[in-house]
Write a structure and sequence with these properties.
Layout: E1 4-10, E2 13-21, E3 26-28, E4 31-32, H1 33-36, H2 40-52, E5 59-66, H3 70-88, H4 90-100
Parallel strand pairs: 3-5
Antiparallel strand pairs: 1-2, 2-5, 3-4
Length: about 130
């Protein structure tokens, strides 16, 4: 089996996923999954596409992650893994992944700060006198 690659994005995070046949080892920036994401919740988020398609332990994942925060990176990785699995066998896995919402790119980003204001929409305190 050749290497299948896919891209996942969320907020400012970008995940490049390389999927090969193997024993289920997930390596992120040269570190194991439980070392990179110590939180069990984020590990669960990353493994969701594998659990839905029942492919845990069948493929090795090598991931390059950069940008954004830890939550954005985990969700970008989830999208990248889902896209890679879909490339693997679209007829079998696409319907399950789509029904779970793992193939949809979340477009929400931080709104930019506007001039003359302390934030994107917040205003300074109004003083009548």
């Amino acid at each position: 089996m050749e290497v299948i690659n896919a891209l996942g994005r969320r907020k400012a995070a970008i995940a490049r996923v390389y999927l090969t046949a193997g024993t289920g080892v997930i390596t992120i920036n040269g570190r194991p999954l439980d070392n990179y994401f110590p939180s069990k919740l984020l590990q669960y988020v990353v493994k969701q596409p594998l659990a839905v398609t029942e492919t845990e332990g069948k493929y090795d994942l090598k991931v390059n992650l950069n940008g954004g925060g830890i939550k954005g990176q985990a969700e970008a990785l989830r999208l990248g893994i889902a896209r890679a699995i879909c490339k693997l066998d679209a007829e079998t896995f696409r319907a399950k992944l789509k029904a779970s919402g793992f193939l949809t790119r979340d477009p929400r980003k931080v709104e930019r700060k506007k001039p003359g204001r302390p934030g994107a929409r917040k205003r300074f305190q109004f003083s009548k006198r």
